[in-house]
Amino acid sequence: MILAVDVHYTDPTALAAGVTFSDWEDSTPLEIYTSQIEDVIDYESGSFYKRELPCILTLLKEHRLDPAIIVVDGFTYLDGVEKPGLGKHLFDALNKQVVIVGVAKRPFKDIDVKFEVHRGESKNPLYVTAEGMELTAAKAAISRMHGDFRIPDLLKKADQVCRGN
User: Fold this and answer.
1) pLDDT for residue 55
2) Deepest of 16, 61, 68, 88, by most Cβ within 10 A of its Cβ?
3) pLDDT along the chain (165 residues), means of 10
4) For every residue of the chain, which 3-state class applies, written as one string?
5) How far is CA 64 from CA 24, 30, 67, in A?
6) What is the pTM of this model?
7) What's the CA gap between 112 and 40, in Å, rounded?
8) What whole-number distance in Å separates Cα of residue 165 and Cα of residue 161?
9) Largest CA distance in the chain
């Protein structure tokens, strides 16, 4: 099972959403999960994971989710290679047992073009990083995801659900 996750904040709370699917090309989710998180810590510049990670872990625990792959909205490695981002911290929190693919909408400082994935007719790339999966495989998987536009449909669905849409 693959799980796409996203979190939306309405301080001091957050809503974490997870969309499960079995294949990268799936057009509809298997299930949709949400978890309300109270008393979320404040955003700390350069340490976004400290705010987001507990929300994702709550979603996993509350719904007893055991995915093989988790797709996060953000970076696994901020520089693509060694500076840990949300995805790397999640990978470590899950005892390095779950593949993490990070899909970011905006570049992080100094991210190389080799992490770019262009989808649909968009001139703006997504930035794909991964832990537990080769970069080429992660980029190919995100490229294959259902949807005609820049953001794959099931990633967009996770975003919409966590925003209450």
Assistant:
1) 96
2) 16
3) 96 95 98 95 83 96 98 92 94 98 92 94 95 98 97 97 89
4) CEEEEEEEEECCEEEEEEEEECCCCCCCCCEEEEEEECCCCCCCCCCCHHHHHHHHHHHHHHCCCCCCEEEEECCCECCCCCCECHHHHHHHHCCCCCEEEEEECCCCCCCCHHHEECCCCCCCCEEEEEECCCHHHHHHHHHHCCCCCCCCHHHHHHHHHHCCC
5) 22, 15, 10
6) 0.95
7) 32
8) 5
9) 40
Pair 142, 15: CB distance under 8 Å: no
**Whole-angstrom distance, CA of residue 53 vs CA of residue 61:** 12
And the tokens for 147? 């949807």
Question: What phi, psi does 48 have (nearest 5°)?
Answer: -50, -35
Domains of the chain plus CATH, in order, are: 2-162 (3.30.2170.10)
